Amino acid sequence: DEIAAVTSRPEQVVGLHFFSPANVMRLLEIVRGEKTSPEVLASVMAMSGRIGKVGIVVGVCDAFAANRMLYPYAQQAGFLIEEGAFPEQVDRVIYEFGFPMGPFGLGDLAGLDVGWRVRQHREPTRPKDLRYSPIADRLYEMGRYGQKTNRGWFRYEEGSRTPIPDLEVTELIVRTSEELGIERREISDEEILQRCMYPLINMGARVLEEGISERSSDLDLVWLYGYGFPRYRGGPMFYADSVGVDHVYETMKRFHEVHTDWLD
Fold this sequence. Notes:
- The chain is built from 12 helices and 3 strands; from the N terminus they run αββαβαααααααααα.
- It is mainly alpha-helical and 264 residues long.
- Among the domains are: 2-58, no CATH class; 66-179, N-(1-d-carboxylethyl)-l-norvaline Dehydrogenase, domain 2, CATH 1.10.1040.50.
- The protein has a 3-stranded mixed beta sheet with strand order 1-2-3.
- α4 packs across α9, α6 crosses α7 and α9 (189-209) crosses α12 (245-258).
- The radius of gyration is 19 Å and the shape is globular.
């Protein structure tokens, strides 16, 4: 909207968010500004089909729709390892749910240095009263950037993308839990799944409430094509309907009663 405001044709300004790697990923978020015309949106939607992309129209907000929903998913994964889980357990649960990889493997693929730069950009506006996990930042400071350095949340043999649990990471996680005064405990696979999926769904509901996306099915498509959400589960919002929206709501309430510093 700020870009459009300094042009003489704001109705022709539209954003295109290609997902990385753009030659592989089919999702294309089409970002409509306050004054973007319907004709421009229609033209860009048609173009997305011609270049083999799945175009989804979203509104203007930090991270747009897809990555905004990703944030609480990754955030909960970080909290879970502080409380007693380890990256390999979290990733196994998410993989068995149907994703091609879990949040930690995804972080290593995207690059922990990229995630660090995003967090640095957001740091001035991050609510300081809410819980924040420092482990990913510490991995970055150790030079562990993910697959590009063969060391991230996992370690990787040269030329291999197979994640291998790393004792150095395990020790860092346990040490951080102690520094934060968190007593580590056994965490069930069910809790891992619910705490990763339900905050993601909750953020999806907020995205819909704010009008950033017009339909829940758009958010399902975003996650199907952007993050490999298991197709047979229909997408996160469809999944919420299948397990029961009331169940998701009550579970989120219960989590929030125990962990009051999660949500702004």
